Amino acid sequence: MVAGEILTCVAKYASLAAAVAVGLYATLLGLLTTETVQSHAVYLHAVQMTWFKDLNVPEAFGFLRNQVTPFTIPSADGLPLYAWHILPVELYRQHESALVAEPPGLVSDITARLAFRLLRDDPDARLVLHLHGAGGTVGSGYRVPNYRALSAGQPDKIHVVTFDYRGFGRSPGQPSEAGLVDDARAVVDWARTVAGIPPSRILLFGQSMGTAVSLAVSRHLALQSPPVVFAGTVLVAPFVDVATLVSTYRVAGVVPILSPLARFPWLFASLQRFIRDKWPSKDRVAEYVRTNEVNGERYHLTIIHAEDDYDIPWHHAQALFWHAVRGAVPGGISYDDLELQKLDLRRDHGAAGTVVEWTTEHGVIREQILKTGLHDVIMGYPVITMAVMRAFEAASQ
């Protein structure tokens, strides 16, 4: 009798706990349909991860004195976007005494600094424009080793400019799809007009959410008349669009957000109508490639992902590669047909993963899938250095 009462009590509380969990989940879904909560959930801009360090003291992040120049770039609507200009280490060594003599910290006029002149006045200088992922700031997590990997291939030539989108770090405002794209365009304009670097010596690097921003900007400029095409675009841990991402996304690779609803297509489709910022990267990459093919413009696109990425599954990279190739093939190509052709094109590097390159008369589309690298650690890997070197080399030929 006592055992039966205990089982009844346990069942009662289990049912209550389940009801509470379902109620909380339903509340979460309701909140996610609101603009403010959705913005925080998508961009995580309130999660800075550098609260106890001063971004205006880059030395606290492991840089040499004045290797990094903090400055601001005005957005189209007048917001000061916080940015770092990072000198490659060998170039820094060559000018160390003069650089150390300058005052450190945030500068109001970057054009007056030696680091800027070393970028602007060198006809062989290369520039990587870095577009980071959701959450954090220019100094967060694995972004600092990422900057070193980007310039490691030519440590006397490859500069890096990274910035915080509106609402991130020290950049004011509220993030949105249109706002982030405008911010990236403002940074590109700064690189071309203020620093005077031609597109053939500029590479766009995006990671995670930054891949969506990179593709939006690349597509926009390719559609201009005359078109603007960079030396290359490197995408690390991309996603095809927000709707597909949320159907698979798990916080820390464990806690699902909307993936349980994917089992109920009608309900999931209803919730998708509330997604404000859709980031349709699959459509943008296809149009970017198709436009360059029609215009006869040279382009170099690299897609990199790790199989053990638990934040964004690596099948997103495979799908994005397909959409890119679809843009390069007149009349398109089915996913299954491409998979068959990839069997002949794929190069197996063993524990280092696989590589597939699709080449046309005008461009190269490269898919590189690593066995390991997670979502962020991969950013400091030599594969990043090689991707940058490969794109700049192709642009110089």
From TrEMBL:
It comes from the Eukaryota. Residues 128-289 form the AB hydrolase-1 domain. Keywords: Hydrolase. Gene3D superfamilies: alpha/beta hydrolase. Coiled coil: none annotated. The keyword Hydrolase applies. InterPro entries: AB_hydrolase_1, AB_hydrolase_fold. One of its GO terms (molecular function) is hydrolase activity. This is Abhydrolase domain-containing protein.
